[in-house]
Amino acid sequence: MFSEALATLSTTSLIIFFLALLVAFAFEFINGFHDTANAVTTVIYTRSLPATPAVIYSGFLNFLGVLLGGTAVAFGIVNLLPVDLLVDSRSGASLVMVMSLLLAGVTWNLGTWYVGLPVSSSHTLIGSILGVGMANSLWNGAGLTGVNWGEVQKVGLALLCSPLIGFVLAALLLLVLKTIFRSPRLYTPPQGDDKPPTAIRAVLIATCGGVSFAHGSNDGQKGMGLLLLVLIGFFPLHYALTVNHPELAPTVLVAAGELRQDYEKAGVPLPKKVADNLVVIEDELKNKASFNDLTRDKETRWEVRQAIMAVTRELKKAEADQSLPAEFRKTLTDRRKKELLPAVEYVPLWVVIGTAFALGIGTTVGYKRIVKTVAEKIGKQHLTYAQGAAAETVAASTILIAAMTGLPVSTTHVLNSGVAGTMVANKSGIQGATVMKIALAWVFTLPACILIAGGLFTVGRLLIGS
After folding, report:
1. So what's the pLDDT on residue 89?
2. Last residue in a domain, options 276, 308, 343
């Protein structure tokens, strides 16, 4: 039970834990009004909805996005920082790592919001994680091994390409709309109290909802990943294996035995690393009806987790080996995704609900600074009805696809680049100064957060001693 895990912490550590939870939820709250302001810009500036109903509507869709968006992105975030570090480090160092990345993320997001600069919470969070990972490994004389660079490369590519995709596709979509719908009213900024036609208004409200839901499904998972790092950092043994469905222990045990048979039937030698870790799983889970039956004070739960993770990594390599029979590779995929990974890749229900509330409520406040930048300062003219619809349709589609594939992308940069693309396609002109500021923020957010998080970690380690 979680209450038993809490009882293992000293009073000081317990206070720091609840402070870490507060800061983590604060990051997601700030993410709500920082990033989601992009989603409500079009409906507010095209007068499709008044500001208050728009942000409440967006907040609700963000809430739903978190609840229904899955967990693939969350584990993309968690896997950036090898969680073994949080267990191998002394407890004091683990706490410093967690608090440093949290404080770095909140500091940068609040600072850029204050000046009305739309920056990516994704860049902020990832930079903070990289900062503490590298600082910790440098502190311990291990070079830059404290970061999962393979995962970083995949995430970095997604963050790099998604704004370009947003720019190009939004521009193309606007040009397509111009060839189909020729009413000049759609391509000129609203005048006075002019409101869009009913059909256009419905489209703009729908695309706003789409971006909000997509933002919740992608960015909400980043918040979940952040909270998982906090939980693993403080309670690695408790959260090593699923607390949502501890009854999966027999399923994992059976899967281990069947996996041996799968290799034998396919005539493929069982790799030594797989064989060794299957022995650990079988020895520890034998006659166990639940993961709760494992001894918590001897790190058995963590050993089982590590064995499961090692097996799944080897299975993933085998699945990509085209020299192996296709049916065998499919069987391995099913074993990995349906029987093994659910034991270690999960998000506690209270984390999902808490993240949904934090992001949804955050959406309803503090949005005005970013809204004004997006609507008035990217192009030389204000947003038109068609521009808003094109930019948000592309943004929602891109972000949802990324969420389904487990890639964290930036709502801010996908949508802002989409707006810029429509400005170019509509020949509305671009405000170079604003675009330059956004571009600089895009370039500098990652290194700035790496330095802030690394600096905070170093100061923290100096304070607690080496």
Report:
1. 47
2. 343
